[in-house]
Sequence to fold (61 residues):
Amino acid sequence: MEPREVTSDEAAEIILNKSEEGLFYLYDEPEYVGIVCKDGTVTTQDFESRFECLKWLRERA
Fold:
């Protein structure tokens, strides 16, 4: 499963409603936010770089 970039509106929908399972990220200046939605649970983490965010997400695939 590859991480997919989302908008802030899409991220809010995923986080609040657990509307879609998968790996997501967005750039919310000045940081990247990684989002894992899996098995009805949502986990988020903030990162200073896109590289670190994508690495974290891929480790959770």
User: Anything to note?
Assistant: The mean pLDDT is 96. The CA atoms of residues 7 and 26 lie 6 Å apart. The first helix runs from residue 8 to 17.
